[in-house]
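TASK: fixed-backbone design
INPUT:
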């Protein structure tokens, strides 16, 4: 009887580094190990102290350039038994200016089974970009195509990546990114969170406050603040100070970096979550996943990367790039208790059915993938 393949995650980031790919790899690797799988993670050295994990064997290499690939190859070959390389692919994160062709060529020569999770595929064509970026885009499309042809299985985090895989898109499975926060908050934790933030109605935002998001978030929150004198604002996540100063000081709370448990508790008692994205809500947006999973009514944006499953039954949507419409949608939800209850309930149901970690396991573990909804 053939021994089961060991899982070898190749990822550009892993805790203690922060980031969506880091969180996802840590979550999935540990869940697979909890189900009895042999799991290794290969990630660049961080220079930071990190805790060894009980179930997952973490290997630190110098990166994914020529030197690091040599270290990786020697490390893999020192391990006996069949191996599966599970690439957590973000082209810009693997170095060499987003054009790490040596990595793709190295993978093409490897004897192991290769699976790829495309967190991103390529930059995307935009005419206003500098000529260098057009070169990067063309190179990244070639890299993705070559990697997809070599891989036995392909996964994409959002439906919007499928066209960028060209002929290989028909082989790809849509595998959304689950929430990186705890999914259950006890009543005692909720009560403590309410006591901590105080009474009243709170609009929460959870994220890292990048420019693409704050460009819509800040004017939308400012308009809501002007038109509703009672609502308060709970800004969760790193970078909230970039937004808090733009809102009435006595009505904003930005607690700074918290544990995942503390963020989940505070988010769970918010009246609603406002989570806009410049390209629209999609299944790779873990901050939106967190609100949905906790049953928090969510207001977001619809854009060119919004997946087909999103609609106003589960998330209150406004057009991306229109802060005024986003604010109006937020005020509508804030004023309608029944709508908020319906959004919270249906959003949690959608998360459980399509986005949860259980759906990920059903796709990855042998014999379980058939239960995951496939892209049509």
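OUTPUT:
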């Amino acid at each position: 009887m053939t021994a089961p393949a060991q899982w070898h995650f190749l990822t550009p980031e892993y805790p203690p580094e922060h980031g969506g790919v880091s969180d996802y790899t840590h979550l999935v690797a540990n869940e697979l190990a909890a189900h009895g799988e042999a799991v290794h993670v290969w990630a660049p050295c961080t220079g930071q102290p990190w805790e060894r994990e009980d179930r997952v064997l973490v290997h630190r290499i110098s990166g994914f350039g020529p030197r690091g690939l040599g270290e990786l190859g020697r490390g893999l070959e020192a391990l006996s038994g069949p191996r599966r390389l599970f690439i957590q692919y973000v082209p810009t994160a693997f170095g060499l200016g987003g054009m790490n062709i040596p990595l793709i060529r190295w993978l093409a020569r490897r004897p192991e089974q290769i699976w790829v999770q495309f967190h991103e595929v390529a930059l995307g064509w935009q005419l206003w970009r500098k000529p260098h970026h057009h070169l990067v885009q063309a190179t990244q499309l070639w890299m993705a195509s070559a990697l997809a042809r070599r891989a036995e299985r392909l996964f994409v985090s959002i439906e919007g990546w499928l066209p960028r895989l060209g002929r290989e898109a028909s082989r790809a499975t849509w595998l959304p990114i689950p929430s990186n926060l705890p999914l259950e908050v006890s009543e005692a934790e909720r009560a403590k969170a309410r006591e901590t933030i105080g009474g009243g109605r709170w609009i929460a935002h959870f994220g890292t406050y990048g420019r693409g998001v704050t460009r819509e978030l800040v004017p939308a929150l400012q308009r809501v603040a002007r038109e509703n004198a009672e609502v308060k604002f709970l800004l969760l996540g790193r970078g909230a100070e970039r937004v808090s100063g733009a809102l009435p000081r006595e009505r904003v709370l930005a607690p700074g970096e918290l544990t995942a448990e503390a963020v989940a508790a505070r988010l769970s008692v918010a009246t609603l979550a406002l989570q806009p994205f410049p390209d629209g809500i999609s299944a790779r947006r873990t901050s939106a996943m967190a609100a949905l999973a906790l049953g928090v009514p969510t207001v977001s944006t619809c854009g060119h990367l919004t997946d087909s499953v999103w609609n106003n039954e589960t998330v209150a949507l406004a057009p991306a790039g229109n802060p005024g419409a986003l604010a109006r949608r937020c005020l509508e939800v804030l004023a309608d208790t029944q709508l908020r209850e319906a959004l919270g309930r249906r959003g949690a149901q959608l998360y459980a059915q399509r986005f949860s970690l259980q759906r990920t396991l059903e796709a990855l573990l042998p014999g379980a993938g058939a239960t995951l909804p496939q892209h049509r």
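COMMENT: DSSP finds twelve helices and 13 strands in the chain.
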